[in-house]
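Ticket #4471: structure output looks truncated?

Reporter: J.K.
Steps to reproduce: submitted the chain below (110 residues) through the standard prediction queue, then opened the result file.
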Amino acid sequence: MFVTYQAEIQSANILRASAHTNGPQGGDSGHGCQTIIGITDEGGTDMECDWNAEKKSLTITLGGDSELETIIEAFEFIAKSLRAQSINRPKNATKNVFALKDLEACAAKA
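Returned output as attached by the reporter:
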């Protein structure tokens, strides 16, 4: 069972950030590592996303000071979550469950 960490970030707008990884797995995606991040508008967010399949490029455009603040917090949460999930994980681990206290302890070390 893998855990996806989520956080709700509130200001004048509300974003939900999520992050999950089962890495490291010892190499590229052929070795089984998968990392998933998500950013969801939960209310009042001026946000547009554009996926260019040909260039494999994602552009996220936000409007407003509140959106700037919440996206910074969202990216910081995502980075800390991924670091915490991958610190000291044995390569090729098939299961790993972290409690919130583990996330906070690992993030503090990062």
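Triage note (M.O.): checked the attachment and the full token line is present. DSSP finds two helices and five strands in the chain.
Status: closed, working as intended.
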